[in-house]
Amino acid sequence: MIESKEIISEFKTLIEGSGFDLYGICEANIPEEDRENILLWVKEHKHGNMEWYPKNMDLRLDFKNLGFDPQSVIVLGAIYNDPEYEKFEAE
Fold first, then answer.
1. φ and ψ at 43, to 5 degrees?
2. Using the 8-state DSSP alphabet, how is residue 28 labeled?
3. Among the record's GO biological process terms, what is one (predicted)?
4. pTM exceeds 0.85 for this model
5. CA 12 to each of CA 2, 16, 29, 60: distance values in angstroms, whole numbers, following the listed order
């Protein structure tokens, strides 16, 4: 039987080898407060030019709508520097 620590260690190696800087593993659950905030964010058109974002909101608000019942979520992130953003922040 593979232990959770072994799986996480393998994930970490794979993730870092793929160029990601950040990762997290958590329970596949979206708190009600977050669901409400997502809906409000979309209602207030804070998604800007991301016209694709409001589509399929049922999938964004409840993972079970994916067609299966996931138990965990793996989130990946990359740290990047944007010279234009850095320039804007400096002004």
1. -60, -35
2. S
3. tRNA queuosine(34) biosynthetic process
4. no
5. 15, 6, 22, 26
